[in-house]
């Protein structure tokens, strides 16, 4: 995997399920105030693998299967 995708503003992201919507940086001059990861995601997911793992660690729902 490469890191060629640059962070995007919210309005630049495609529909949910296409690009990672994890906020990676504050940028006050943009609408919403954040830049988003925008890496490709697996079908049906909101976050890329990396950020999916991060969010799962932070607030893993009870009984949710672990993905390794
Ligand atoms: Zn991401």
Automatic annotation (TrEMBL):
Domain of life: Bacteria
The protein's name: GcrA cell cycle regulator
